[in-house]
C-alpha cells in the first residue's frame, strides 16, 4: 500500500535518471543514512563498532570493487585480496615515509597504487578469459603475498615482517574512539558507493557489461575491449586498494602479510556470488552475510547450550558457505540482491497478485 | 617450423638453460645437483597426480574442478582415519566406495541442475564444493595431522655411490609414488583406449551433443568421470599423505595443480604429467639455486620463491600459448 509509485510523474530527464527514481526508495535511503550517521554512533557499543560495523563496511567496499570486475565486467579474479594488500602496504609506506600527509590523500594514493598493479596483472585478460584468467590472477595473489612478506622495504625493515600503523589523522584531527573511526569509514564507503553506482550507470559501466555479456558483439558495436577490461581492472583495484588501506589502518591496526591471503580473496568472491553479481546493493548484502554468519554461528550453539569447539564451528562455517554457494548458483544466480528486487516488485503490486 | 611456436620454444629453452645453469657454477656439487633434480621431479610427480584428476574432469565435462585439491585431502583423511581401525587395503576399499558415492552426489546435486551453464558458473560451483568438502572432511574426521603408513622403510637409500662423491640419497616412498603415477597413467590409458566406457568418455569429451545422439548416457558418464577423478585423488592422497602427513596444508600444494594443467594443456592427461614434472623440477631448481642469489642481491627476508614460481610460469605460458603444451588448439581469444 505504502510502496506505490502512482502519481510520481517525471517531467524532466534529470528526474528520470535519478539513482533512486521512486520517492519511497529515496525516503528509505535517507532514513537509513540518517540512522547510520546520526543514531548509530550514539547507541553502538565498542563491540558493535569494532567487530561488526567497521569490518562490514570495509568488506562492502571491497566487495563493490570485486563486483565491478567480476559482476559487471565478467572477468573472474581469485587475487582480490592481493590488491587489498597493495593498498594497505602502499598506505603504510606513504604514512611512514611522509608522516605529514593527510590520510585522505594517503587513501587515494593507496587506491592509485593498487590500480597500477591491477592494470599490470590485468593485462593477461586481453588474451585469455574465463578460467584461464582465474589462474593468472592466482599468480598475482601468490606473487604479491610473497613480495610483501619477503621484500623488507615494504614492511619498513620490521624484524618480524609485521607492520603496525600510525593513528588515522587528517586536518589536525585524529580518529581515536571506535565511533569516530566508524563515522570515517562510513563516510568513505558512502562516497565510494555513490561513485560506483554512477560509474556503472555511465558509458564506462555499460561498456563493461557489454564485454561481459558478449565480447565479440561488444567489439562490433564499437567498444574497445582492451580499454574496457583495463579500466575494469583499474577501478576494481582502486576500490580494493582503498578497502585494503582502511582494513589495515582502521580495522587491524597492525598486520602480517597473511592478513591478505588466498582465503580472503575467495571470501570476497563469495560475497559477490551470494550478494548478487552485477549489483552494488548486493555487495552490501554479501558482505553482511559473509561477515555476520560466523559471528552468528559462534553465538547460536552457546545459546542452545551445545558446546562446540571453535575448530568445529569454523568447519561448519566452511560447509555452510560451500553449500550456500552451490545453492545460490543453482536457485538464484543473481543472489540476495535479486531476492530484494523480487520483494520490492511484490510489494509494489500488493495486495493484487499481478 | 611454425612461427607461432617460436615464443614457446624460447620459453622452454630459457627454462632448460635455467635448469642447467647451476651446473656451470663451480661451487655446485654434481651429486647435490642430481639430488635436487630428482627431488624436483618427485614433487612434480605428486603435482601430476592431482593435475591428472583436473584434466580428466575438464576433458569429459568441461568443468574446471577447483575441488580436486579438496578431494585429495578428503580422500587422504578417509584413508588415514579408517586405516586406524582396519588394514590399509580395507581402508582403501572403503575410500573407493566413499569417493564413488561422492561422485554420484556431485552429479545429482551440483552438475545436473547447472547443466548448460557457462564454464565460469560451474567453476564457482566447484569452489563451493571445495569449501563444503573441506569443512565436511574435517568435521567428520578431525583436523589434526594424521599419517598414512604404507609400510615402507623410512630411511633413504644411497645409490650411485661410485659415480658421485658421497652418493645420492633417494627416498623409498618417492620411488613408490613415481611407480604409482606411472601405473595410474597406464591404467587410465588402457581404460580410455580399450574399454567401451573409456571410448564413451572420449566421445563425450569430443562432443557432448554428438555423444548423446548416439546413445551415450551423459549423466552416467559424468558420474563415472568424477568417480575416476575421485580414484586419482585417492591415489594422490595416499602418496601425499604418506610423504607429508595428512593435514590441511595439503590443499595449498594441491592448488599448484592449476598452473600444472595450464602448462600441460587443460584437456591432456599426458600433459598433466609433463607439466607436473616441469613445474616440480623448475621450482625446486629455482628455490635451491636462484633463491639465495635473489635474497643476496635484493636483501630479502627469505627465499620461498617456490610459492609463486609455478603460477608465474603458468602466467607466462598463458601469454604465449594459452592452450598449453598438449592442449587442443581451440580457445576463445578476444
Q: Could you give the count of β-strands of chain B? A: 2
| Arrangement of strands in the largest sheet of chain A | 1-4
Looking at the structure, the CATH topology of chain A is ABC transporter involved in vitamin B12 uptake, BtuC
Helix and strand composition category of chain A: mainly alpha
In total, how many beta strands of chain A?
4
Principal-axes shape call of chain A: globular
What does the overall shape of chain B look like? globular
Query: CA-to-CA gap between the ends of chain A?
Result: 14 Å
Instruction: Give a quick account of the main beta sheet of chain B: strands, pairing sense, barrel closure.
Output: 2 strands, antiparallel
Question: What is the share of helical residues of chain B?
Answer: over 70%
What pattern of helices and strands is seen along the backbone of chain B? HHHHHEEHHHHHHHH
> Based on the structure given, which CATH architecture of chain B is correct?
Orthogonal Bundle
Helices and strands of chain A, in N-to-C order?
A: HHHHHHEEEHHHHEHHHH
Number of helical elements of chain B: 13
**CATH level-3 fold name of chain B:** ABC transporter involved in vitamin B12 uptake, BtuC
Which CATH first-tier class of chain A would you pick? Mainly Alpha
Protein traits:
heterodimer, A: 354 residues, mainly alpha, ABC transporter involved in vitamin B12 uptake, BtuC, two-stranded antiparallel ribbon, 4 strands, 72% helix, B: 334 residues, 13 helices, 2% strand
Summary, kept brief:
The complex is a heterodimer of chains A (354) and B (334). With 354 residues, chain A is mainly α.
Amino acid at each position: 500500500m505504502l510502496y506505490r509509485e502512482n502519481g510520481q510523474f517525471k517531467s524532466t530527464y534529470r528526474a528520470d535518471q535519478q539513482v533512486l527514481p521512486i520517492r519511497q526508495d529515496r525516503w528509505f535511503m535517507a532514513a537509513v543514512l540518517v540512522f547510520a550517521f546520526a543514531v548509530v554512533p550514539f547507541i553502538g557499543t565498542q563491540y558493535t563498532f569494532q567487530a561488526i560495523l567497521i569490518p562490514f563496511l570495509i568488506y562492502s567496499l571491497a566487495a563493490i570493487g570485486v563486483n565491478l570486475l567480476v559482476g559487471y565486467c565478467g572477468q573472474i579474479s581469485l587475487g582480490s585480496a592481493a590488491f587489498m594488500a597493495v593498498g594497505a602496504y602502499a598506505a603504510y609506506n606513504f604514512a611512514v615515509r611522509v608522516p605529514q600527509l593527510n590520510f585522505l590523500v594517503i587513501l587515494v594514493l593507496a587506491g592509485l597504487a593498487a590500480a597500477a598493479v591491477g592494470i599490470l596483472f590485468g593485462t593477461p585478460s586481453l588474451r585469455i578469459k574465463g578460467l584461464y584468467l582465474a589462474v593468472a590472477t592466482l599468480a598475482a595473489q601468490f606473487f604479491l603475498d610473497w613480495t610483501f612478506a619477503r621484500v623488507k622495504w615494504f614492511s619498513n625493515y620490521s624484524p618480524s615482517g609485521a607492520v603496525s600503523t600510525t593513528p588515522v589523522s587528517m586536518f589536525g584531527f585524529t580518529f581515536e574512539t571506535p565511533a569516530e573511526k566508524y563515522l570515517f569509514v562510513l563516510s568513505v564507503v558512502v562516497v565510494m558507493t555513490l561513485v560506483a553506482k554512477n560509474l556503472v550507470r555511465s558509458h564506462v559501466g555499460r561498456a563493461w557489461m557489454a564485454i561481459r555479456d558478449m565480447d565479440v558483439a561488444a567489439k562490433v558495436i564499437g567498444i574497445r575491449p582492451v580499454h574496457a577490461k583495463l579500466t575494469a581492472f583499474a577501478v576494481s583495484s582502486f576500490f580494493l586498494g582503498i578497502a585494503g588501506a582502511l582494513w589495515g589502518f582502521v580495522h587491524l591496526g597492525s598486520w602480517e602479510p597473511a592478513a591478505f591471503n588466498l582465503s580472503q580473496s575467495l571470501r570476497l568472491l563469495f560475497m559477490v556470488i551470494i550478494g548478487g553479481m552485477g549489483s552494488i546493493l548486493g555487495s552490501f548484502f554479501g558482505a553482511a552475510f559473509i561477515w555476520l554468519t560466523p559471528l552468528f554461528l559462534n553465538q547460536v550453539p552457546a545459546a542452545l547450550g551445545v558446546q562446540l569447539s571453535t575448530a568445529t564451528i569454523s568447519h561448519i562455517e566452511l560447509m555452510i558457505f560451500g553449500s550456500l554457494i552451490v545453492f545460490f548458483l543453482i536457485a538464484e544466480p543473481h543472489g540476495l540482491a535479486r531476492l530484494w528486487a523480487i520483494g520490492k516488485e511484490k510489494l509494489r503490486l500488493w495486495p493484487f497478485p499481478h | 617450423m611454425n612461427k607461432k611456436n617460436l615464443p614457446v620454444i624460447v620459453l622452454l629453452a630459457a627454462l632448460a638453460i635455467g635448469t642447467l645453469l647451476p651446473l656451470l657454477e663451480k661451487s655446485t656439487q654434481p651429486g647435490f645437483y642430481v639430488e635436487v633434480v630428482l627431488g624436483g621431479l618427485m614433487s612434480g610427480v605428486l603435482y601430476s597426480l592431482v593435475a591428472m584428476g583436473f584434466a580428466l574432469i575438464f576433458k569429459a565435462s568441461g568443468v574446471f574442478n577447483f575441488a580436486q585439491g579438496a578431494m585429495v585431502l578428503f580422500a587422504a583423511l578417509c584413508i588415514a582415519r579408517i586405516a586406524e581401525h582396519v588394514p590399509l587395503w580395507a581402508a582403501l576399499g572403503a575410500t573407493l566406495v566413499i569417493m564413488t558415492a561422492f561422485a554420484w552426489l556431485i552429479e545429482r546435486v551440483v552438475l545436473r541442475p547447472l547443466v548448460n551453464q557457462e564454464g565460469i558458473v560451474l567453476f564457482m560451483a566447484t569452489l563451493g564444493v571445495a569449501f563444503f568438502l573441506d569443512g565436511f572432511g574435517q568435521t567428520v574426521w578431525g583436523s589434526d595431522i594424521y599419517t598414512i603408513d604404507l609400510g615402507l622403510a623410512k630411511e633413504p637409500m644411497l645409490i650411485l655411490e661410485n659415480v658421485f662423491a658421497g652418493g645420492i640419497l633417494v627416498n623409498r616412498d618417492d620411488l613408490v609414488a613415481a611407480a604409482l603415477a606411472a601405473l595410474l597413467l597406464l591404467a587410465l590409458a588402457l581404460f580410455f583406449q580399450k574399454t567401451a566406457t573409456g571410448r564413451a568418455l572420449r566421445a563425450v569429451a569430443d562432443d557432448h551433443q554428438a555423444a548423446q545422439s548416439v546413445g551415450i548416457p551423459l549423466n552416467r558418464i559424468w558420474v563415472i568421470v568424477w568417480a575416476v577423478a575421485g580414484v586419482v585423488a585417492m591415489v594422490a592422497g595416499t602418496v601425499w599423505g604418506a610423504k607429508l602427513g595428512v593435514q590441511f596444508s595439503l590443499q595449498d600444494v594441491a592448488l599448484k595443480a592449476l598452473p600444472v594443467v595450464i602448462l600441460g594443456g587443460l584437456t591432456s592427461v599426458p600433459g598433466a604429467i609433463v607439466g607436473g614434472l616441469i613445474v616440480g623440477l623448475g621450482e625446486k631448481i629455482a628455490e635451491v639455486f636462484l633463491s639465495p642469489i635473489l635474497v643476496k642481491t635484493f636483501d630479502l627476508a627469505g627465499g620461498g620463491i617456490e610459492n609463486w614460481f609455478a603460477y608465474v610460469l603458468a602466467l607466462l605460458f598463458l601469454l604465449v600459448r594459452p592452450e598449453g603444451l598438449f592442449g587442443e588448439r581451440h580457445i576463445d581469444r578476444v
